[in-house]
Write a structure and sequence with these properties.
Elements lengths: L5 E4 L5 H17 L12 H10 L2 E6 L2 E9 L10 E2 L8 E8 L8 H15 L4 E6 L4 H9 L3 E8 L2 E9 L4
Parallel strand pairs: 5-6
Antiparallel strand pairs: 1-2, 2-3, 3-5, 4-7, 6-8, 7-8
GO molecular function: acyltransferase activity, transferring groups other than amino-acyl groups
Pfam families: Acetyltransf_1 (PF00583)
Protein name: L-amino acid N-acyltransferase YncA
């Protein structure tokens, strides 16, 4: 699978396609009966901020963008207020705003992106990934379980509780 996909930093030229993918994901979350991403977030301004700060990444296959993700090595302030306990207090990377194109169907795309973030983290000598999602985001919850993420408690974003997970990576 890795030979056909490439994860790279997003550029301003990618912004329209990223926003298109995010809108598809927002619509899918609504169809699934979820309240996640139904409040005007994420939006085009958030994508621009991700790109400007170097957080935005796109997954490409044959020159087409299939997925978007924000990969943040600067921490997440909301994670300091965890109701629960993290597995570690070490430096970590955060994954936010993972969205996969719905107009080009590929299997395992989100899982591949998550694994690529592990590779990015290890390359920077960061051995912890922290993530969160809505309680009703069954797709992401399945991916977290499949990839060995452990439930650590709840965090709060924009007034809502979200499930928080951590995965410790092996030093190579």
């Amino acid at each position: 699978m890795s030979s056909e996909f490439t994860l790279r930093k997003a550029t301003n030229e990618d912004q329209d396609r990223i926003w298109e993918i995010l809108q598809q994901a927002i619509k899918l979350r609504k169809q699934d009966g979820s309240s996640q991403w139904q409040d005007g977030y994420p939006n085009a301004g958030v994508v621009q901020q991700d790109i400007n700060q170097g957080y935005g990444y796109v997954l490409l296959s044959e020159g087409q963008i299939l997925a978007y993700v924000a990969v943040i090595f600067d921490g997440e302030p909301a994670y300091q207020e965890l109701e629960g306990k993290w597995l570690s207090n070490q430096e970590y990377v955060v994954i936010h705003r993972l969205a996969v194109a719905q107009d080009i169907k590929t299997k395992g795309t989100a899982t591949f992106v998550m694994k690529e973030v592990e590779t990015l983290a290890i390359a920077r000598c960061v051995y912890s990934i922290k993530v969160d999602t809505n309680f009703d985001n069954k797709g992401m919850l399945r991916i977290f379980e499949k990839l060995g993420y452990e439930y650590c408690g709840e965090v709060h974003f924009r007034g809502g509780a979200r499930m928080a997970f951590e995965k410790l990576l092996n030093k190579k």
